[in-house]
Amino acid sequence: MLPAENYAPTYNPIDVVENIFASQSFELERRNINEVVVEVQGKWNNMLLFFAWESNMRCMHISCLMDMETKIEDRSKIFELLALVNEELWVGHFSYWTEQNIPVFKHSVFLNNGEDVFENKISQIIDIAIKECERMYPIFKVVLTKGMNPKEALYPMLMTTVGQA
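The structure corresponding to this sequence follows.
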């Protein structure tokens, strides 16, 4: 196996993330050379997008944290909801950050040597993360704050509509 430095990109992918958000009015914090956090106003609430670059693996990790206060003590409902929600996803997954008591959408992207479409990949994953968090926010909200049964909370989302109104 070749050393990681042989695969080093000519740019830091975190710079690419900064460039994606540079033209827009987002609050951005570069925590260090390999991490950046961006606050995004969502449909329901603010979300924090966290990006971390692992150069040895050539992997960009993306987390989208939903700002919501959990009021239920029964963690089994949280984990049941995560299992049901993740069955519906093609890309990424939801987890629960127990230290902060919030749901998080996560995904990782590998950067191939010489890849020139990385910005497109990251932009696409950002869009997916935000859309999935906005789509699932009401469901997480009723389960985490009201204690609603996860299957009941998901039912409207899983219904197939037929025809037009």
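Residues 118-146 form the longest helix (29 residues).
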